Amino acid sequence: FKGGDTCEYLLSSGRFLGEKVWQPHSCMMHKYKNSEAKNCLIDKHVVFIGDSRIRQLFYSFIKLINPQVKEEGIKHGNIPFEDKSASIKVDFLWYPEVNGSMRQRIKSWTEGSVAKPHIIVVGAATWSIKIHNGSNEALAQYKINITSIAPLLEKLAISSDVYWVLQDPVYEDMLSESRKMITNEKIDAYNEAAVRILNSSSRNSKARVKVFSVSKLIAQETIMKSADGLHLPESSRDTNAMILMNVYCNKIMKPIDGSCCQPQPPLTLIQKIAFCFFTLSIIGYLIISLIHRNNYRKNKSCTDLESGEEKKPAISIPNVSTLEMLLHSFCKLGLIMTYFYLCDRANLFMKENKFYTHSSFFIPIAYILVLGVFYTENTKETKVLNREQTDEWKGWMQLVILIYHISGASTFLPVYMHIRVLVAAYLFQTGYGHFSYFWIKGDFGVYRVCQVLFRLNFLVVVLCIVMDRPYQFYYFVPLVTVWFMIIYATLAVWPQIIQKKANGNCLWHFGLLLKLICLLTCIYFLSYSQDAFEKIFSFWPLSKCFELNGNVYEWWFRWKLDRYVVFHGMLFAFIYLALQKRQMISEGKGDPLFSSRVSNVLLFISIVSFLTYSIWASSCKNKTECNELHPSVSVVQILAFILIRNIPGYVRSVYSSFFAWFGKISLELFICQYHIWLAADTKGILVLIPGYPMFNVLVSTFIFVCVAHEISQITNDLAQIVVPKDNSTLLKRLLCIAGFFSGLHFFSAMQDQSRH
To answer: Quick one: signal sequence residues (predicted)?
Structure first.
């Protein structure tokens, strides 16, 4: 960590990812849309002063505001541009040499009550080299002229953003005869003079002219694609314009994926309270630990001096108290949350944009597949979707999703569609698992509900407080939570139908099917009635949980995307448990699930269905159209996978302990990746070790997995304390939790009021 300003890095250093994606050193660059550019530059006046290269930059800049603009202006003259809808003025002023005329124009903005431009971009040198045939006298005059202009630019820099654009290198082999005197050696001499004079002048001034030197680096990689050896190709100048937009607009618009030039956000009131709470927990735990250690030393066995025999302590060493376990858990959690904050809220560690290549996705997939197969063990039981198998399923799916996120594979539609199936499979397991539990156990008690809700939501609630993010931001947890409550309500509402009751009378099975049909009808209605859905979730306090950016559209979109798969999971569980009860399937070790003939036919159909879905997903051309079909067809590949995994007895009898280990902490992995593996709320990649991408991924991944595992342990420990089995104690804890959320809402309201 050098402690430098990310704006300096953005303006001076970086590298290409692939051929066209520019990656600034240490920070992320946002790709501005036309609407965002207009919102940033509303009521602003921008001026570009210089030669034909600056004119190129001017056109690329105004195309960010209005892509329909054509390069039809006068070549050697001033070119105005105005967007009346946003009151934006952008002017190009033709001053190809740093001379008295340029000085006079700049000086006019420093005098009297003349309106100053908000952004000034200046640069020129190649015309001086060309006109004076690269003479040393011309360079000396350039130094004199820029020395006279520098104080004026600094004066403007007090109230405006002023950028001096260094000269890009040329491709000498392509230059015409009239430009042969423009050599890279001459350009370097002019650039060196400009930087030295501007830097020496700014030492004595509070304001500073920003040197735009990154264009040189971009040109070094792309100038050979130039049409004439002098002017940059369009993609390169567009990159320069986007860098300019990021330098000025990031501090105004604060885009999530634009960490360059963004100041560290101030701590909110709730974050300060959380910091004090975790600090007190750490201090409290250290005090209790010291007291216990002293007591332990005092009560140690000691030798009786008279008899020479060892005496045993009268008081036995007490077990760890609930308070100590609570403080220990919060102490560890406080340290972990500090790491979260430093990674993704403080400007301490570097962040980089994602860049997708097929190798960055498929090679890690092949690697973890080999590891998973290597760690193969026998299962304790051979039932369909037994515990080891479901943990394994969650584990490999989570690892694939993590690789998908860090590689930026969402830009590749076939991969995106397959990842959507994996997310659907998680929800399928939610429907299958919770339905099976309620159907078999018949336990609809408050304790069970509170345990599930606590384990699902504890980490997300803490992150909402520490990272200052809304609950809906971590969309998967709200999704799973709501579906759990829907499953619970469906089965718990009168009449409660469980397996034990249904075994006595087959009519109860029809009653349960009727409940499931009602659930399906409600899902269908809400998915095609956005207004009804938004009305339900716009009521307080639901609106506080499910709104994102002031509305619940994002929540409706996420819910709608996998709306049927939980129902499919419940229906599958019902059919499977009914077949199991009637002994219509064989789940012995090594036995096929059905008779050989039926098993072979089902296995063939499953493989064909699995491959057919993959072919369809790979041939998708339009994400919107494929997303419309996804809720109805994703179950095909999920069921095909379950049958392929369970019909052959030998396949059902083994599992990968490697994948299963990750499956046990899959929820924590999914949530933690937002801030300590990825960066900028999943938009970029966290860089702990710059310059060594592979080593960085290894180190950050190791820390990330360890943290996720530790949080899983902390959640389990706290669940035993916060959600006790005793009903009267549980009721008291629920009242405390209600008080906690009331206080959180109160402080949140205060926070919002202070922001407005």
So the answer is: none
Count the domains in the chain: 4
- Decide if 303 is inside a domain: no
Q: What letters, b where the CB count within 10 A reaches 16 and e where it falls short, cover 656-666?
A: bbbbbebbebb
CB 705 within 8 Å of CB 712: no
Q: Tell me whether strands 45-50 and 88-94 are parallel, antiparallel or unpaired.
A: parallel
- Return d(Cα 715, Cα 723) in angstroms, integer: 11
Which helix (H) or strand (E) segment holds residue 122: the answer is strand 119-123
pLDDT of residue 442: 94
Say which of 85, 159, 228, 538 is annotated catalytic.
Answer: 228
- pLDDT tops 90 at residue 681: no
Q: Which has the minimum average pLDDT: 50-54, 313-317, 588-592, 752-756?
A: 313-317
What is the token pair recorded at 753?
């009021």
Is the domain of 543 the same as that of 462?
Answer: yes
Domain boundary, last residue among 307, 331, 348: 348
pLDDT at 317: 43
Q: Are residues 158 and 244 in the same domain?
A: yes
Asked if 447 and 581 sit in the same domain, the reply is yes
Taking the model in full, what pTM does it have? Answer: 0.91
**Residue written as token pair 């001017």:** 58
Is residue 309 situated within a structural domain? no
Q: What is the pLDDT of residue 573?
A: 97
- Identify the domain containing residue 50 by its residue range: 6-253
Decide: 416 and 623 in contact? Cβ < 8 Å: yes
Q: How far, CA to CA in Å, does 702 sit from each of 247, 579, 668, 689, 696?
A: 34, 44, 14, 13, 10
d(CA 744, CA 527): 32
The pLDDT of 651-668, averaged and rounded, is 97
C-alpha 454 chain-centroid distance? 24
Which is catalytic among the residues 25, 30, 45, 231? Answer: 231
- Based on the residue annotation, tell me whether 228 is a catalytic residue of this protein: yes
Same structural domain, 55 and 182: yes
Q: What is the CATH number of the domain that holds 143?
A: 3.40.50.1110
> Please, are residues 379 and 651 in contact by the beta-carbon 8 Å criterion?
no
Catalytic, out of 13, 52, 289, 657:
52
Do 483 and 505 lie in one domain? The reply is yes
The token pair at 670 is: 């999914």
Question: Rounded to whole angstroms, how far apart are CA atoms 442 and 311?
Answer: 54
Residue 320: what pLDDT?
A: 67
Q: Are 484 and 453 in contact (CB under 8 A)?
A: yes
Cα(664)–Cα(400) distance, rounded to whole angstroms? Answer: 15
509 is catalytic: no
At 144-172, the pLDDT tens digits run: 999 999 999 999 999 999 999 999 999 99
Examine the domain organization and report whether 417 and 529 are in the same domain: yes
Q: Classify residue 298: in a domain, yes or no.
A: no
Q: Is residue 310 part of a domain?
A: no
Residues 627 and 683 in one domain: yes
What does the buried/exposed string (b/e) look like for 173-194 if buried means 16 or more CB atoms within 10 Å of the residue's CB?
Answer: eebeeebebbbeebbebbbebb
Encode pLDDT of 616-638 as tens digits.
999 988 999 999 999 999 999 99
* Residue 113 known to be catalytic: no
What would the two tokens of residue 567 be? 């129902």
| Same domain for 449 and 334 | no
Spatial distance between the Cα atoms of 224 and 235, rounded to a whole number of angstroms: 13
pLDDT greater than 60 at residue 306? no
pLDDT score of 303 more than 50: no
Give which of 589, 80, 30, 12 is closest to 354, Cα–Cα: 30
